[in-house]
Amino acid sequence: MPVMSSNTQGSNEPEPTDGLRAFGAVLKSFRKRAGYTQEALAREIGYSVHFLASIEQGRRFPPTRFVDQCEVTLDAFGTLRLTANQLSRQRGLASWFRKWAQLEQEAVALSTYECRLIPGLLQTEAYARTLFLNQLPPQGDEQIEALMTARVERQLLLTERPNTAYSFILEEHLFLRGMGGHDVTMELIDHVLELAERRNIELQIMPVVRSSHAGLGGPIRLLETPENRWFAYSEGQESGQLLSDAKVVSMLQMRYARMRAQALSFEDSVSLLERMRGA
Q1: Which residues share a beta bridge with 204?
Q2: pLDDT for 7 beyond 50
């Protein structure tokens, strides 16, 4: 499976499933019935043409908001909602993560602090496979391929949601660990640097030596919905929790904001990764 990059199009998408292909065919039929081209419908409902095409080809799971907007715009008599309700999630996403993954597809802002591993959205294939191969109990080949397919599909968010603001704060030691070996780490650094060139992606590195740190409580994930509602997500070894309580989310936003001031600037973070790459 090819590595996801910031300028890759459909070649990195997962293979269509029967259910998703059927939904895509129904959507395409109603689109043509209503007299819309893909470009016109995408513009009308506020999604990219590539995103719409991926769903019509059965390569993407349609978000609820997407289905609702298409249903109204195409006057589909409830058929799109009914068809979407019959879909089952693709394998490869933990059950406790699926609600968050669904929210990610609609987010206007997504902020991530990680101290354990490089976030899935930024991983290369080689790095991700290293993580999957190190899981215990061991995963079978079919399970690993399902995990890889889901990982690559999520990474499409970075290219298909260019108006979403992505912020990442990563601990320096995640790159120093050398997960997978030297070549895997060098490829990972190159990949992260390439993604950092995108206007909607902000990257900051938290240096190893730091006298104060607001993120000692662990990883933080925050997102803002199109309705300007904020959610957070917390994940453990074999569980995850979607957090919607305003007080809890506000507390995590406060910590994240402090870390943005404590971490290296974007320019200094890029410079540090470039020095690591040249070492």
Answers
A1: 169
A2: no
| Identity at 242, one-letter amino acid code | L
pLDDT at 94: 64
Which of 122, 107, 132, 101 minimizes the C-alpha distance to 205? 122
| Six-digit token string for 33 | 């019935």
Distance CA 56, CA 50 (A): 10
Tokens encoding 7: 């300028």
225 close to 108: Cβ distance less than 8 angstroms? yes
Cβ-based neighbour number of residue 237 at 10 Å: 4
Question: pLDDT per residue over 15-40, tens digit each?
Answer: 456 788 899 999 999 999 999 999 99
Please identify which residue in the block is written with the tokens 């260019």. 162
Among candidate residues 5, 20, 87, the one with its CA nearest the CA of residue 54: 20
Question: In one letter, which amino acid is 111?
Answer: S
- Within the chain, strands assigned E span 109-114, 165-171, 201-206, 220-224, 230-235, 240-243
Of 240, 217, 256, the C-alpha closest to 100 is 240
User: Which two tokens mark 257?
Assistant: 């904001």
Whether the link from the prior residue into 137 is cis, omega within 30° of 0, is yes
Whole-number percent of the chain with pLDDT over 90: 64
Answer for the pair 259, 215: CB distance below 8 angstroms, yes or no: yes
Distance in angstroms (rounded) separating the CA atoms of residues 115 and 4: 22
Looking up tokens 């900051």, which residue turns up?
204
pLDDT of residue 1: 29
